[in-house]
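hey can u check if this looks right to u? its 288 residues, i copy pasted from the old doc so theres a chance i mangled smth
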Amino acid sequence: MQCIINRRAEFSASHRYWFSDRTEQSNQEQFGACARSPGHGHNYELYVSMLGELDRYGMVLNLSDVKQVIKKEVTSQLDFAYLNDVWPEFSHTLPTTENLARLIWQRLAPHLPLVKIQLYEHPRLWAEYKGAGMEAYLTVGTHFSAAHRLALPSLSLEENTEIYGKCARPNGHGHNYHLEVTVKGEVDARTGMLVDLVKLHEVIEEIVIEPLDHTFLNKDIPHFETVVPTAENIAVYIARLLKTPIQALGAVLDRVKLIESPNNSCEIDCSWLDSELHLPAQSQPALV
């Protein structure tokens, strides 16, 4: 029987996004605050996922051994280090989160049966790498506050209450939504980036956060005049808004996760968007 196990580790390190063969203005334009001298630091969290057969002791691997491998190959080298100088690869590429996850995989793969490396730079920015060449995933987190009411206009208050419970109350209610947007792409060999992070933040802010923040979704957003703004439908709406602008940045929208409350969240796999674009209008999924 196969099982995936996960081991967490952490390290603190600093880095700077800077190319010495570029002007200060060029570096600032591409990397923003990350280009500031002498750099900045993070408390990184690393999750190493491994796949294997359960042995007669009920283990895939001895986690004490795994801990020592991760320490020897990764954390002892990176902890309290300036990442630009610590590994030779960073003499010609940058220690971005996605690039660092890819290089951590390369160091651990000879020793552990890896299936995924997940590296958190901070709680609202993390990368995933699954061993597919230069392909990696980057997730950014953000938030907005909005009110909504869950009710179908064609139904009575009693009928809507039977379906949606308290969420059907006539005057609505609000949430502090947490949004996670994951993009997929090829890590650039020079910059170490799969997408321009500054522009990605700008796209999400301008297309999603600014229009939705502090609104009553049913009344302020035309789409939700006829579509019930459940967390699922909001996530689908956000995915459709972001797909083309993220493509224009050279990445692919992979998934959207919307956390409505500590108890409720939904996640949309955005691969279906490609097929949806080729469907006749009457064949597209009806969302309520």
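The chain has nine helices and ten strands.
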